[in-house]
Specification:
- By secondary structure, this protein is α+β, with helices and mostly antiparallel strands.
- The protein has two domains: 15-266, Phosphatase 2c, domain 1 (4-Layer Sandwich), CATH 3.60.40; 268-434, Jelly Rolls (Sandwich), CATH 2.60.120.
- It is 38% helix and 24% strand.
- The chain has eleven helices and 19 strands.
- The strands form four sheets. Strands 2, 3, 4, 5, 6 and 9 form a six-stranded antiparallel beta sheet that branches.
- Strand 7 (142-147) and strand 8 form a beta hairpin.
- Helix 1 runs antiparallel to helix 3 (88-112) and helix 10 packs across helix 11 (389-434).
Length: 439
């Protein structure tokens, strides 16, 4: 067992506490971790293959990823400084390329040594650059985020169990009886290339992360993990988690890397308030309410914030619209000509039909006061649906619910209007029959 402590760092530096343990059943450790404090890069890999092949796979993969990123350090510095036109997608592509090169390196080593043929590894790489985090993920190791008292799993297991759970073919009660419950559906190095999940997100002051192998996550629930984060000092948390996994069986190798982003100097900072507000309004919308935290982060990444001054027109009646607007702060009025139809405040939205329909806008929208609106474009909406099947199913199902509710409301209004017309006609007939001129 090894439990290195963080080296002396400036107060604003990210701190980390990595630890790995063989567990109580295995005779050797195929897990590995890697920390590069200059890059703010953290990696956990869980090797497989036996006869020390898993250990080789995890170490080769981890070091290859680090070397690729180290070779592009200038690009990463440019991104952090906002120079050179380097964007989020460039960093994500670099991280994915690093994992693909690691996959090729592990595969080739297996081809060159018959005793290691077929070896592979999971990998989770977390790269922190300024106020942005980037993840590359393959397999069933995990990255957790602890933020403001809640734990969020930022990766989705590429495992047989998870696939069966998602498809409704397995209940959680049946997991223990499953013979191949540790089987992964993706791994680095088994084949020459692999599909890599990538994610980027805002990093807030005070965020905590846990990277771990399934030898740990298999013994913990998110609710319990949140309590452990809250009650345990960061420098003792990795040891506490490994002790718990061993107490509960220790059937696999166990690795934990705990990471701490420095707290804000004075309460919640501006970025945290803005991110929290965006996440809150998205989660409350019927269209997005069924998404996980990780999926909401993906949606948040396709949004932009647009400011509008007093009496500034946001939407013009008759224009072809391709954007959904969500009011973050302030208030806007929806109107047709000078007739005001309604006012919308924080959390309310307009134009969701523009995400699927090119029909002209049926009304104008103008700011009543200085306002900020969250905007989602149609092309970005369809792009995320095309790339992520799980999000696509949830969004399209929710959209169907929104349309059904709108149709139900419209039918009700038409029915009420019809009833009023009949009543008005009856009253008019009675009035005419009762007037002297009708005699």
């Amino acid at each position: 067992m090894s439990a290195p402590t963080p080296e002396a760092t400036p107060p604003a530096a990210v701190q980390f506490w990595p630890m790995t343990d063989v567990g109580r059943v295995r005779d050797h450790n195929e897990d590995s971790f890697l920390v590069d404090k200059k890059l703010n890069l953290f990696i956990v890999a869980d090797g497989m293959g036996g006869h020390a092949a898993g250990e080789v796979a995890s170490q080769v993969a981890s070091h290859t990823v680090r070397e690729v990123l180290k070779g592009s350090a200038d690009m990463l510095h440019q991104f952090e400084a906002g120079h050179g036109g380097i964007g989020r997608q460039d960093v994500l592509r670099l991280l994915e390329s690093a994992v693909q090169q690691a996959c090729s390196a592990v595969y080739q080593q297996g081809q060159n040594d018959e005793s290691k043929r077929g070896m592979g590894t999971t990998i989770d790489a977390l790269l922190l650059i300024g106020s942005r985090g980037f993840i590359a993920h393959v397999g069933d190791s995990r990255v957790y985020l602890y933020r403001q008292g809640a734990v969020h799993q930022l990766t989705e297991d590429h495992s047989l169990i998870n696939e069966l759970l998602k498809r409704g073919r397995l209940s959680r009660e049946q997991i223990e009886k499953l013979q191949y419950k540790n089987a992964v559906t993706r791994a680095v190095g088994v084949y020459e290339s692999v599909e890599v999940d990538t994610l980027d997100f805002d990093v807030l002051k005070g965020d905590r992360f846990l990277l771990c192998s399934d030898g740990l996550s298999g013994y913990l629930e998110e609710v319990e993990l949140a309590r452990l984060f809250a009650e345990t000092p960061e420098d003792a948390l990795a040891q506490r988690l490994i002790d718990l996994a061993n107490e509960r069986g220790g059937k696999d190798n166990i690795t934990a890397v705990v990471i701490k982003v420095p707290d804000a100097e004075s309460g919640v900072d501006r970025l945290a308030r803005e991110v929290n507000l965006k996440m809150e309004v998205l989660h409350k919308m019927p269209l997005f309410r069924h998404l996980t935290y990780q999926e909401l982060v993906r949606v948040l990444n396709i949004t932009e914030v647009r400011a509008a001054g007093v009496d500034q027109v946001v939407v013009e009646e008759g224009d072809e619209g391709d954007e959904l607007f969500i009011v973050l702060t302030g208030q806007v009025r929806v109107h047709s000509g000078e007739a005001v139809l309604t006012h919308l405040g924080p959390g309310q939205h307009l134009g969701e039909m523009a995400l699927v329909d090119k029909a002209p806008r049926s009304a104008s929208v103008t700011a009543d006061e200085p306002s900020k609106l969250l905007v989602i474009r149609r092309r970005d909406f369809f792009d995320i649906i095309r790339k992520d099947h799980a999000i696509a199913v949830k969004l399209l199902w929710s959209f169907l619910g929104v349309l059904t509710e709108r149709l139900r409301t419209t039918n009700l209004q038409l029915g009420e209007a019809k009833d009023r017309s009949v009543e008005d006609a009856a009253e008019l007939t009675d009035a005419l029959l009762a007037s002297p001129e009708s005699e």
